Amino acid sequence: MFRALVINDNEAEGYHCRLQDVDESQLPPGNVTVDIDYSTLNYKDALAISGKAPIIRSFPMVPGVDFAGTVSASDDATFAPGDKVILTGWGVGERHWGGLAQRACVEAGWLVKQPDNLSARQAMIIGTAGFTAMLCINALEKQGITPASGSIVVSGASGGVGGVAVSLLARLGYQVSAVTGRPQERDYLLQLGAAEIIDRSELDKPGKPLQKARWAAAIDTVGSHTLANLCASVMHGGAVAACGNAQGMDFPASVAPFILRGITLTGVDSVTVPQAQRQHVWQQLAGLVDDALLESLSDECTLDEAVDRAHQLMAGEIRGRLVVKCR
Ligand code: NDP
Fold first, then answer.
1. Which residues form the Enoyl reductase (ER) domain (predicted)?
2. Ligand 1 atom nearest to CA at 161
3. For residue range 265-320, what is the model confidence (pLDDT) as tens digits?
4. How many Cβ atoms are within 10 Å of 219's Cβ, its own excluded?
5. Are 140 and 76 contained in the same domain?
6. What's the pLDDT tens digit per position in 182-200?
7. Which ligand 1 atom sits nearest the alpha carbon of residue 271?
8. Which helix (H) or strand (E) holds 187?
């Protein structure tokens, strides 16, 4: 038996998520079994646990799009018992039982080897959020953005993706503007490396199609009017990496910044990144972070506390990253 958060939806109780003991025989098919040390709570996990969006496609489902742990059994030549592994994405915690549990059974092709200088806990402080932040930076750099191009603006900066993006950009030598709706997190964001704090209210309402060119590039984690305003505010030849929808799925923008400033809007999807690229991005992350940084942007809870903390995350009350200790 192992402990897992389990989401069910039935007539008697409606949509609900609770911690329970699960028999190992119920694990879904997969060729690698992992004893999970740490998982995390991402925005998507909070949506799944709270039922606020149709993330879960079949029931019962164990949520958790991330985990880090130790291989306990493997039918695949790439992984052997004792190997330290990380999983993010691939529909795990959505269509296949996920990481908010003490054990998982997955396909070998979904796993990456934990970089030597990262612990399972550190890997999960990074998690899907940090992995996505790194993908966004790589996407901007692919468009020719460098620290010499000018400053980069990051929306949703007090959240998970935003906080890691601010700190990674600062470490790479970029000047960073952090957009937040939480003025109380000013010192936290300055400590992560932001040079300027911008109130969310400057960007989250309908704006002009073309605005003062303020930034060389943007990483947007919230979508909607904020994404439209960021596109309207990047300099000629600039780039915007869009990865999130915390404000909304809509994109009420005009073509003006594209045809008059030649900007590029690049979409980022962390779920289906091929394994070789994943391994490379994890090595990049391992080389950029250190323990002090990771501790400064994270908090920890247990599996027993995860449902309550997911509701806090939905309410915008969690800062940075929240790791979940699974055993
Ligand atoms: P968090 O909840 O940790 O952070 C989201 C942040 O967005 C909040 O902290 C808040 O920042 C800001 N925000 C919330 N509501 C609003 C609003 N109404 N208007 C403007 N800003 C708002 O989530 P994550 O960092 O885990 O994820 C961020 C987004 O990225 C989510 O939409 C998630 O689904 C998406 N995502 C996408 C991935 C991909 O592969 N494309 C992978 C990972 C995440 P503040 O308080 O500082 O304003």
1. 14-324
2. 25
3. 999 999 999 999 999 999 999 999 999 999 999 999 999 999 999 999 999 999 99
4. 33
5. no
6. 999 999 999 999 999 999 9
7. 40
8. helix 186-192
